Amino acid sequence: MQTPLHIDPQQAFNEMAALQRKLAAGMQNLRGLGEQEYANTPREEVYREDKLTLWHIKGSDRPTAKVPTLIVYALVNTVWMTDLQDDRSLVRNLLAQGEDVYLIDWGYPDGADRWLTLDDYLNGYLDRCVDIIRQRHGLEAINLLGICQGGTFSLCYTAMHPEKVKNLITMVTPVDFRTPDNMLSHWVQSMDVDLFVDAMGNIPAELMNWVYLMLKPLRLNQQKYISMVDILDNPAELKNFLRMERWIFDSPDQAGEAFRQFIKEFFQQNKLIKGDLQIGRQPVDLGMISQPILNIYATQDHLVPPDASRPLGRHVSTTDYTELAFKGGHIGIYVSSRAQREVAPAIHQWLRDRT
Amino acid sequence: MSDQGHDFLKDYQAFARQSWDSWMRYLQQSGAPAPFGIPPSAPNDDLLTRSLASLKAYGSWLQQAAGAGPAGFGPMMGMGNWQQPAAMQSFLAAFTPPFAQTVAGIDSASAFGLDHQWQSWLQAMQRAGMSGVNGMNAAGAMQGLPAFGLTREMQLDQQALAAAINDYVQINARYHALLQQVSTRGIARLQEMLGQRTEPGKQLDSMKALYDLWVDAMEEAYSELALSDEYRDVFGAMVNAQMQVRKLQQQQTEKMCRELGIPTRSEVHSLGQRVQQLRRDLQASKQREFHAGSNEVGALQAEIAELKRELAASKAAAKVRPIAGKPEEGNGKSAAVSRTKTARSASSKRK
């Protein structure tokens, strides 16, 4: 029987020496780079309320799409993942396809936002943004593109205000919150969420980051930085790495009351698919959604496993339901090379077929 | 293993130590933060801190794994040696510290790092001159004793807090003991994975490949544990215990603030709730105005449409009337005046 280790001592020595050399040479590159900007595709502020800003993204050409699409992002992290860098931008790719894109930047909640509820977010902020876009375009209904938790919000909103949504796209969106492979959900089942929110108030971004790192502690907190050594001598790659680091750790605190409701009613009680969810005074019945739906999930998503997204088709009443499996992870669906080629064109094609 | 191989490894260890020391000196001279201090706010410094922690763990592992002694991979290179439990255990021992270090690193930098929070709170209370707090460390010994006298309420509070801290310490120890299982299970998994790579072409030919395989094994073991019922319950209990401590700390702080006339957390919450309700009321009021405005515009549009119809009808009627001269202009003017009046009249009615 052979040994699994076929490591020549001289080669091992060379490998380690190379690592040291790369480190020494690369640190100078790292020090000179500073904060990396996002793509910052030109945009116009359309509406502002409290911490929220509604942006209209401006392409170089006039959009050909007649119905605008509003991107609804999650409350965790920031919407700039959709416009991360020049060559990795979902919104730029959508503009290039001729879509007319708006997006909501939820902003950074502080103590004054501690008592914002899901009703405030969905039937308040989101509803007003939708109304403003409808009014600007003289339309009864617009398209929604909900991402992750923002996809869940878009589903709830469409169920409550079906007359205002023409087409619905959900990306990496949790629908069934109690699937066996959902680690986040598993961890919160024994938590006393009331005690948690009462004690914490708003939930600090650092705590959220801790939870995400603990999903894959070695990969996300050690291996990633060891692999970084390989790109220390490549300023372009290093900038991309730093930009992604900025996005990962540039995350807002969570408004306490909204967090409480989301964890209890979605993660713990799974009310969205049980049909007994209520936001404010309005019942949320997924069966009310008869709009065309494009549900995009990532096959290697460790945050929102595919099994959490796929059940959507069983709970809505639409007869026009399409699923798209993207080969990649929760972040790769926006920033990978494959995503640049596949995601925006697929969304555009699907929308065009329904205009 | 040849002597030549041992020489290479000794050379490497000396080289690695020298490089590491030089690198650390360079960073310190450049004003970089201490690698294991609290992460600073500047993004690149934060990145440096995390990178350094990771690289140091990796560097330690490399030195151990590549060591010339019995724990090094050198002895493992011999035919069949990697299957011998004693040799394997000795070799794999090099893999244990990095996981624990990594988790501890994440913990200490996060909001879950209760230890430093606790110390800060205790010091703040002591500085504020809150009597009785100096005895907090011994409060555990007071548990079960009846409280009495002028400071009775404070004694009860402290006993409750001491009990909560005790609960937290115990559950936190259980949590970390669970995490330790990851190392054991992960190493067993690594052994299995190594067993699947004995064929030529599948063998590991670099230290980095071995490290990556170790990460795969540990993450698999961790994932399995993290999805277990036991982990769910212990994790939940740990969070709950910590929140209980925090809540009791807040209650004590609140009492002190009230005595000193400083706004309390409860008061801020009360104000926040009122502000939020005012925001809702304001938005509802705007919506009502908007809809009322929309209704008014709609009514005006309907009136204009009606007037247009009337105008068209009067023009049509004028055409059929046999009129000489310029009376059409007069009719037109009259219609315009009439339309304005009608509109004003309708407007004043709405008011």
TrEMBL record, chain A:
Top-level taxon of the source organism: Bacteria
Domain AB hydrolase-1: 88-334
One Pfam match: Abhydrolase_1
Pathway(s) the chain acts in: Biopolymer metabolism; poly-(R)-3-hydroxybutanoate biosynthesis
Keywords: Acyltransferase, PHB biosynthesis, Transferase
KW Nuclease (keyword) present: no
Keyword Transferase assigned: yes
Gene3D superfamilies membership: alpha/beta hydrolase
Name this polypeptide is given: Poly(3-hydroxyalkanoate) polymerase subunit PhaC
Automatic annotation (TrEMBL), chain B:
Region (Disordered): 316-351
Highest taxon in the source lineage: Bacteria
Alphabetical UniProt keywords: PHB biosynthesis
Start-end of Polar residues biased regions: 337-351
Protein name: Poly(3-hydroxyalkanoate) polymerase subunit PhaE
Pfam family membership, one: PHA_synth_III_E
Family annotation (InterPro entries): PHA_synth_III_E
Pathways per UniProt: Biopolymer metabolism; poly-(R)-3-hydroxybutanoate biosynthesis
Organism listed in the record: Dyella mobilis
